[in-house]
Amino acid sequence: MNLSLAFEPLISWPLLGLVLAPLLLLAFVGLWFRQRGAVFRFAALLALTAALLNPVLLDEEREALKSVVAVVVDRSQSQDIGERTKQTDEALAGLQQRLGRFKQFDVRVVEAGKSEAAEERTETRLFGALESAFRDVPPSRIGGAIMITDGEVHDAPGGTPDFNAPLHALITGNDQEKDRRIRFENAPRFGLVGKPLEMTYRVIGTNNEAGSVDVRVSVNGEQVSVERATIGQAMPLQVTIPGAGRNIVELAIEPEPDELTDTNNRAIALIDGIRENLRVLLVSGEPHAGERTWRNLLKSDASVDLVHFTILRPPEKQDGTPINELSLIAFPTRELFVEKIKDFDLIIFDRYQHRDVLPVLYYDYIAEYVEKGGALLIAAGPEYAGESSIARTPLMSALPAMPTGEVVEKAFYPRLTELGQRHPVTRGLDGSATEPPHWSRWFRTIGVENPGGEAVMKGADNRPLLLLDRKGEGRVGMFLSDQGWLWARGFEGGGPHVQLYRRIAHWLMKEPELEEERLTADGRGMMLEIRRQTMSDDPGPAQIITPSGKAMTVKLERAEPGVFLGSIETSEIGLYQVGNGDLKALAHVGPVNAPEFTDVVSTENRLRAPAEATGGSVRRLAQSSTLGNLAGGVTLPSVVPVRSTGAAAGNDWIGLRTTDDSVLKAVSRVPLFGGFLGLGLLLLALGSMWYREGR
């Protein structure tokens, strides 16, 4: 029962004051001067005032509101270590049982750390979950919060949280845990291919551990060295980036006995390899209509350093002009093809023929250059079929096809072969999807016999037009037409000459993205995506090994000719090994070196400051005690409801605040000066005054 007195005046307050103020003044004057009948007049005035004020006795029926208590349960991956999950489940069950005894608490259980987003799974953000639990609760109704966690919380405030209620933390794990981990201190995002890259790392032990440990260094899954590192000190590391594109540098240490986990015994750095400017030597045999097509293309590529020579004055041209009067530059054959040939990534012979400009022995050097890993491109014209063809020199051992001596002068549309539709150099060329192709015609094809390698384009009468071949460790390409300039000049709408020529050049220089057989994998969010380039019709499924060592397979589906894709949703963050046939690839799913795994030793330190600032407490669940032991050996404190001004924690108990807030359900009204009772009192007062005045 909640009784209260309220006034519901019969007239407005201003009018009531205007009427009563003069009367009260007269009554007080009469009392002051002790006039006869002043007391009866004052009593009558009070009765009149009470009648006009209309006092009402209110009896309110209220329902007390509950205090909201949030139980935040840490379900992050670090909670899967050891007995932490079991301790968490037992503690949660015990808390729910104890809180269920108190009807004044509205308990909300919130689980954090199980988000599907990779970014949210790599950090334990319990205070964000706590804020969401209290978002619809007024501050006066917040009773407190209990966190069940290993203490590795990454969004803990440095001071007082944003709510005025006790915060209690129950820590899983035990205070005897030990763990050794490794991390990169400095890892650049980019590195030059083939050049040493400076990095630093640190091995960290528990409780200021000293000593040294072996560190295995692997690049793209291949171990390159074993370093000796001093625990606790920053150590230098030098690695060589093997190729362009994504490279994975991994550091690994052996786990020590009784270590919590070996998940953080590896550290990953993703480094994008960048090639230094590629050096290309372009030798044009003579001026011709398409001579500048290759030059313009290579000069427009910022990653290419081009050296271009055109043979304008062959040795047989003897017209008697004195040497000192010639303005032409002598062709530095020895410097280019003997002394510095290894410095070039690609040599292009554009309609070149043997005219004794190069000694015959130099063709042997070029063939040897290709055999040892160099790249050679022959852009053939009619001279390739003639008597002075370079196919009649020692270079023939490096060429993919010998000329028949035939030059076919016939209009045709360059078309992709069946292999060409799958080959990365020609696959998906702009305009190739229609018949005839959506590009201009050419009018000349050089005949060859017994072509080797792969014919990816065909010309007139289905003759080979573009051959790609491997010789030893190097590569050779042969374009059996000199009509590509028609596309560059826009004849009949032109064609994709830039796209095609650039792909040919980069395939010859071993660009990874243009490899016929290539397996790549990449992590996007918590999805592992696999891409397989192949010239076969079916590469089969991909085999995957997860960071924890589990094996699984993923079916690869054909996305386009020569490209097969597969994907799988993962639950672990870390380094995945993907295999298909003889190819292997590595992929890292989730953020690299995520905070969730950098430090997994349970701790009370991170939550101590915010808990003590709210009057709460931090205590471990796994500790010996005679009070509150559950079946699993977990010790739970007692739960005690406390007032807002009382203490909220003790040695073996935690306090949660109760609220004074309530909700009004019904109101009973009893007028005190209404009806016959009010009328009788008013008449009695007035009659007494009249009677006294009459005497």
From TrEMBL:
Keywords recorded for this protein, A-Z: Membrane, Transmembrane, Transmembrane helix
Domain of life: Bacteria
InterPro entries: Class_I_gatase-like (IPR029062)
Bilayer-crossing regions: 12-32, 39-58, 672-691
Annotated protein name in UniProt: Glutamine amidotransferase domain-containing protein
